Amino acid sequence: xxxxxxxxxxxxxxxxxxxxxxxxxxxxxxxxxxxxxxxxxxxxxxxxxxxxxxxxxxxxxxxxxxxxxxxxxxxxxxxxxxxxxxxxxxxxxxxxxxxxxxxxxxxxxxxxxxxxxxxxxxxxxxxxxxxxxxxxxxxxxxxxxxxxxxxxxxxxxxxxxxxxxxxxxxxxxxxxxxxxxxxxxxxxxxxxxxxxxxxxxxxxxxxxxxxxxxxxxxxxxxxxxxxxxxxxxxxxxxxxx
Length: 241
Hints:
With 241 residues, the protein is mainly alpha-helical. Helix content is 65%, strand content 0%.
């Protein structure tokens, strides 16, 4: 748990939630540049994407439950055992697009500007996502995104699998906040808020509103949500930055 004035990893897990998100002091060293991706890894990532894209196209056309894993493997020109080496479960074929976002909140916290609190960094990032109509914020009315979201939220097994992804997001964010039970509590609240905001935006768009129409209300809801988070998680008496 990161307390005020402590480095991540130096806590003993007995600090407050406020310490985790109110200050969230960064280490003194700048984060190292990400390692270069090897040709083998790039090919692997392309294979992941190609298999997932083929699967999603079939799911959108016929429905998730009406497409077998064997059919996806055949469409991707690979064997079924090979497919399972890439995707442990059928649901992962559809949710692969969320994989890159599992640690997004953690990356935002870890890469924030000097002196910027974790909550301020996450607020800034979410508002920027709304502005560019990032599908992750739920504020996107592109036809292909609408179709994918309807597939996702209309398939119970995909919704259940999505919660596992969100659990990993919480774990990654908790580590970025310093670890410990109170950091996990803070991470759980933050990830829940981001999920609810996105779901509300998607709900409105699914009823026929455009992203541009929903935008102002989405910004207001996000601002109010982060005010609530700050009140609950930051130290009492601390002026909001």
